[in-house]
Amino acid sequence: MILRGNFPIDKFEELETPFYYYDFDLLRATLRAIDENTRRDPDFCVHYAVKANANPQLLRIIAQAGLGADCVSGGEILAAIKAGFPGHKIVYAGVGKTDREINIGLDNDIFCFNVESEPELRVIDELARAKGKLARIAIRVNPDVGAHTHANITTGLAENKFGIAMTDLDRVIALAKSLDNISFIGLHFHIGSQILDMNDFTALCNRVNSLVERLENRGIDVPNINVGGGLGIDYKHPNHHSIPNFEEYFDTYRRHLNLRPGQRLHFELGRAVVGQCGSLISRVIYVKEGTKKRFVILDAGMTDLIRPALYQAYHRIENISSDSEIVERYDVVGPVCESSDVFGKAVDLPLTKRGDFIALRSAGAYGEIMASQYNCRELPKSYNSDNI
User: Fold this and answer.
1) How is residue 378 annotated by DSSP?
2) CB-based contacts of 109: which residues, under 8 Å, 6+ apart?
3) Which of 29, 253, 292, 368 is the most buried (most CB within 10 A)?
4) For all residues of the chain together, what is the average pLDDT?
5) Distances (CA, A) of 376 to 303, 336, 368, 371, 373
6) What is the pTM of this model?
7) Residue 47: what pLDDT?
8) CATH topology (fold) of 276-384
9) Which of left, alpha, beta for 186 (phi over 0: left; psi -120 to 50: alpha)?
10) Which residues contact 92 (CB under 8 A, 6 or more apart)?
11) pLDDT (tens digit, 9 = 90+) per residue, 23-73?
12) Domain boundaries in the chain?
């Protein structure tokens, strides 16, 4: 087998591009790193955020590693159950849970609903009453803590749609405790995604500590604290930093969050689990000489990987076919009829020609799961190191 980096190039020759390729050996190594950094903390509970990637084979590996699942739709709950996640390890968040989705959670006896509004709390109670069930809930608090990340992926500011304002927290907890079919079991927080500055998580810890202390002083027990996820990955150097710094991440909470005896701390990691193990593999259709630029036009587009168009996100672009020592500068673009269908501008690549394989790295999170059929394009297939 011919390998260029971690890519079996000769096997790719048999496949129609574009497609997602997952390095499951790296995924398993990432899951081992999570286990190694949490096994000494029996009160640490790690859930995988299914919204990052719901590829069924990938989900099964994560479920087999013992993680729980963090879901944001009824469909994700069903996908998690099908992949082997037990209901008692599933948490369900989201600002707009429909009656059907809430019933899916109740029918599968999920661990917890992360409640984001007073009307939602009342609806969950009503639906649980109809089924003769007790729904466990955590209240998602909007902590008004900023994160050093892209504006579109911050979630913990007062201006964001997520969670319940701290000023309303006492009233909503009192309501939860008054409802017969609701069991209040904790608080949920999430401040954003692709966070690399541990000071952001420290700030969250400080806010959580003060809130829990205030509630305890009022006689309110908080048995579960859910701090969400948000840990980022190194998009620029995926070969050198293929596994996130879980040691620093978990140690930040270990040092700064004042867990009480018996209190459980829940995490909801998504991108950090799967981001680096996936790449979008494409072929060069044309190399076009423009008036001022040279373009590499791929058969992959924003329909296959929307992050660069949506977030101006960076993905390392590699020509995994070329051995040329000549380096040229290209704008790397897709075929979609949109000017925003651009993966990278002024990208230095070895001399590139029609038919070369291009890898868009670190696409394991928010890649395949966000693909669309705009322009009537087919959805990309996926392959992995276990099956090719």
Assistant:
1) P
2) 87, 88, 133
3) 368
4) 94
5) 10, 10, 16, 12, 5
6) 0.94
7) 98
8) Lyase, Ornithine Decarboxylase; Chain A, domain 1 (2.40.37)
9) left
10) 71, 72, 77, 101, 105, 110, 112, 113, 114
11) 999 999 999 999 999 999 999 999 999 999 999 999 999 999 999 999 999
12) 24-274, 276-384
